Amino acid sequence: MAKDNSAEQRRNRARENARQIAAAQAKKEKTAKTILWSGIVVVVLVVVAVVGVLIFQQAQPGKTPANLVAGGISLAKGNTVVQPKTMPEGETSDLPTPAEAGVKENAATVTVYLDFQCPGCRSFEETNSPTLMKLVEEGTIILEYKPIAILDRFSNGNEYSTRSANLAACVIDSQPEVASDLISALFDQQPEEGTDGRTDEELLQVAEDAGVDTSKALSADPEQTVEQCVTEQSFKKYVETTTQDALDSGVEATPWVLINGEQTDQTGDPQALTLEILRATGEIKG
Hints:
Layout: H1 2-59, E1 73-76, E2 80-82, E3 108-114, H2 119-137, E4 141-147, H3 160-174, H4 179-188, H5 200-209, H6 226-231, H7 236-248, E5 256-259, E6 262-263, H8 270-281
Parallel strand pairs: 3-4
Antiparallel strand pairs: 1-2, 1-4, 3-5, 5-6
């Protein structure tokens, strides 16, 4: 009988040991699962937080450069930067009005959408800039430049269109009086399509050669210089927004030229363009 009891006890102890081992194993597995799911929850929360921050940042309007209205800079007599003749609804500006700058009452607004990577824009500037600037000095027109970026794909990943438009915004913000010189210089130094675009250092050199003080502070952000504005692409979001606005308004290519809001195709003939402008001012009938 003692032997039977001893055998029964051994079986009971074996069962108890097995139960304890199973319980311990189950506890370990439960702990491991808890740690695993806790880790997954933490990762998900981090991902959600990062996505939320990115969405928030994308939703922010970004910096708006001074002296640009509705994505453009308007030049009048004496290279004076002025308000557009008709201010966009909801926008205000401290710039002088065209009348205050000596522009004729019947002056036409010539709007040029351009991309600094665009060979056609360079040709337009070379062909028409002397005539247009003469009309500006006479007070016959307000010349409105609207840099956009639609040709980034032609600079081998350099995003030259965006970066050069950002440079223009940096300069117009701080030194609008040299804007027209910078525009000319950017076209003079235009990289060929399909090649690498200019580096930041090269863009800054182009600006300096055009008379830009790259150490000057921005009007939109006095803590930042023109050089920092270029290297940090401070107005990149602004360029993206104004480019999309241009496309939404019907711009299909560059150069895209409007006279008093109406597109003209007389972009390769200065005399024909001048006649169309003078008709728009009423100085020539028919």
